[in-house]
Amino acid sequence: MWRKRRLFRVAMLSTFAVVVIYYTTSQLRTIQKWRNRRKVGSAPRWEPVVLMNELQYVGTERDEDAFVRHAFNLSSSNLLPSDRALPDTRHTRCHDPSNYGELPLETTSVIVAFHNEARSALLRTVISVLNRTPSDLVEEVILLDDCSDNEEDGALLSSLPKVRVIRNQAREGLVRSRILGALEARGDFLMFLDSHCEVNVGWLEPLLERVTQNPQTVASPVIDVIDMDTFQYRPTSSQLKGGFDWSLHFKWVPLSHKQREQQTNPAEPFLSPAVAGGLFLVSRNWFRMLGMFDSGLHIWGGESLEISLKSWLCGGKVEVVPCSRVGHVFRRRHPYTFPRGNANTYLRNSKRVAEVWLGDHKRFFYEAQPNARMMDAGSLQEQHEVKSQLDCKPFQWYLENIFPELKLPNEENSAFGQLRQGSLCLQSVEESSAIKLAECSESEPSQHSWAFSVHTASIQHRKLCLTVHDRAKCPVLETCTQSYQQKWSRHGRAVVLLSSGQCLESGTTSEVRLSECRRGAVSQQWDFTVELQAQDDHPVNIT
Ligand SMILES: *[C@@H]1O[C@H](CO)[C@@H](O)[C@H](O)[C@H]1NC(C)=O
């Protein structure tokens, strides 16, 4: 009897033991799994990094003309520790890490190109990345020293964890330096940062989520302001997208009514026509497929517009991610030295972007930047190859679908630019109301800015209207009055004065006069450079 009971007890005990062991190991396994999982918003895996000889590193720089050299308050920057605390500027919805889902196992290379950056600003950029990014997400921080005067600015930081310093022995400019960084990168994602930034808490995870969901995304953080005088960190609106005008100058644009309606909360990522500046995350593969940045861009400028247009037109997209916040020192001027002058370099870079990506709409760029017409922008063959290889869409698609806010200039006009007949152009005669024909020239301002408006039935040259006085044969330019003497229409390529039904005709010399319309007469055929309402009903048909 007692033997039976003992046997029973042993059986019970061993069953219990088995259950306990099984339960414990399974719990341990779960815990292990949890540990291995990329937990979003978790504390950094190492103690916050502080450079041991930080004061020594920063303190060696004493420059009386610091404001001139860096275009920001150097002493204000130097007084701040590299690991200073920042206000969390995110929307409260961003605080919940479960919003970002599972993070990728792939890593990110952070690429920071710099030239003569203030040491304290550069160091704070690096330290903020190391302290505010889960370690296993960061492959490396590539510091690309674009031939700074003092090699040690970068070299001294190579002892920091994950930091790789690469130095150009000759100046390449920021654009080519970033390309070099991208070529060196081992991570699957590339994050481009400026050298005077501070990333904020949880900055990388929401960007990674977007790029993981769609690998053809260029994802931009919201760029907060670090005051250049006081280095105070201030939030900016998270509801602005990046855009530009016809000069190809970047500008902020509020979200469209439709975008605001579609948005369920302000923490949601939204589509943006362009990224602001050089701060964005992109998959390395997609970046390479896009041909990286155009390596023909000199020094700085135009590259963020280029990558944005390329991305949109060639099958990808650009997004702003409000839950990702990065502070940036905005300066009044660019301290980066341009060997060929700041404005010229920028214009030349913009011309390259316009020539490759704007298609026929580049004419609007030249209307806004007439000085770019004569500029030599170098060979664009490689860029055109990328464009045809990836079978990129025309700019018109971008205008209609991605950036409808970019209005065509003088939209009430149906045609504008030069008013030409063959190789001859109509031009105003200085100090008089007369007009004449002359050989067309891109650089002759008196030949540009003609416009025909269907609404007012007028032909304008700048502020003046093409006028034919009663019984006179030659048109002149006069103040616009809306009188019948200034009403014109176009029939095919003929330009007709409505009141008399007569046609504008070129004479044997440089004169222009009115005469009876004759069908097919070459001397009565006129073309504007830009036709916005062509006969065949295409919305834009530029010849
Ligand atoms: C620069 O920073 C220093 C130290 O914070 C401050 O005393 C000074 O007023 C600042 N200069 C300007 C022009 O803001």
From TrEMBL:
GO terms for cellular component: Golgi membrane. The keyword Lipid biosynthesis does not apply. Residues 413-529 form the Ricin B lectin domain. Pfam families: Glycos_transf_2. Pathway: Protein modification; protein glycosylation. Its main location: Golgi. It is found in: Golgi apparatus membrane. The keyword rRNA-binding does not apply. InterPro entries: GalNAc-T, Glyco_trans_2-like, Nucleotide-diphossugar_trans, Ricin_B-like_lectins, Ricin_B_lectin. Its EC number is 2.4.1.-. Its cofactor is Mn(2+). Keywords: Disulfide bond, Glycoprotein, Glycosyltransferase, Golgi apparatus, Lectin, Manganese, Membrane, Signal-anchor, Transferase, Transmembrane, Transmembrane helix. The chain crosses the membrane at residues 7-25. It is a single-pass type II membrane protein. GO terms for molecular function: carbohydrate binding; polypeptide N-acetylgalactosaminyltransferase activity. GO terms for biological process: protein O-linked glycosylation. Belongs to the glycosyltransferase 2 family. GalNAc-T subfamily. This is Polypeptide N-acetylgalactosaminyltransferase. It comes from Cryptotermes secundus.
